[in-house]
Design a protein that fits this description.
Elements lengths: L14 H4 L2 H17 L3 H17 L5 H7 L3 H12 L8 E4 L3 E4 H26 L3 H12 L9 H31 L9 H7 L1 H24 L17 H22 L4
Antiparallel strand pairs: 1-2
């Protein structure tokens, strides 16, 4: 079974799958701004609950949550530890082993940052899991289309975005296949010192990079043989903005504005 990865699409017929991809991107941007722009436990809890509700309503297995969160656990723990250390001698601290001062406020701040990071990653994963790469490409092209006035290669940018999303699951699958082959030859990735483990991954990364260059070369040849220029492209399915898309985007904006006003007013 292929592990889920950012860029993988899980087909479905839920309301979230039917939502316009431009609306999904807009909501993701608005909520991400709220996560890092409004320092409120209420906003943080509301966004996390909303993302988990999205996974449930889209009928995406919740085991995918741990798959997406695990790669950024290190950064979350690093932020937690860095914020927990009391750099201010006047802060309310406790002594850990009698040496390292720990700030309760720093622990809370680091915890909030880690949860924000996880919520943003899960939100991005939810968008890609419920939207096909082609639809995401069309959404990016539509959003960036006004930049054509300034001669920005919008179609090329959207193509690069689409290819990157398309090949993330493929890269993950190939990396797992190479790692399994190396394990069969006696390689150990989970034993020894940190340097030993890093060196053990070299026989995986080298053939993976070679395979990526081969795929890129094959893709370039395929595009050239089809006379791809990026101009005048037509689309099989046209995006259709519905009233429900407008309502959901407006609801996200109203939520963020209300939360900001409540935070400034001391309510949240």
């Amino acid at each position: 079974m292929i592990k889920p990865a950012i860029g993988m699409y899980v087909p479905g017929s839920s309301w979230l799958h039917r939502l316009d991809p431009r609306a999904k991107l807009a909501i993701a941007v608005v909520l991400s701004t709220a996560l890092f722009g409004i320092d409120s436990a209420f906003v943080l809890a509301a966004v996390v609950i909303g993302v988990l509700f999205g996974f449930i309503s889209a009928r995406i297995p919740l085991r995918y949550v741990s798959t997406f969160v695990w790669p950024v656990v290190f950064f979350g723990l690093f932020a937690l530890v860095l914020n927990a250390i009391a750099w201010d001698a006047t802060a309310a601290n406790m002594q850990l082993f009698g040496v390292v001062p720990i700030s309760y406020a720093g622990v809370a701040r680091g915890f909030y940052f880690a949860v924000r990071l996880f919520a943003m990653i899960l939100g991005a994963a939810l968008v890609t899991l419920t939207t096909s790469p082609v639809a995401l490409t069309d959404a990016v092209t539509s959003i960036l289309s006004p930049l054509r006035v300034f001669r920005v290669p919008v179609d090329d940018i959207a193509l690069v975005f689409s290819i990157a999303l398309r090949f993330i699951p493929t890269i993950v699958e190939e990396a797992e296949t190479i790692a399994l082959a190396q394990r069969a030859r006696g390689a150990r990735f989970d034993s020894g010192s940190l340097m030993t483990r890093a060196k053990a991954w070299v026989p995986v990364l080298v053939p993976l990079l070679v395979q990526l260059f081969r795929r890129a070369d094959s893709l370039a040849l395929a595009m050239e043989s089809r006379c791809y220029t990026g101009e005048g492209r037509t689309r099989l399915r046209q995006l259709s903005w519905q009233p429900s898309d407008t309502m959901l985007v407006l609801a996200a904006i109203v939520f963020v504005v209300a939360a900001g006003i409540g935070r400034v007013g001391g309510v949240l």
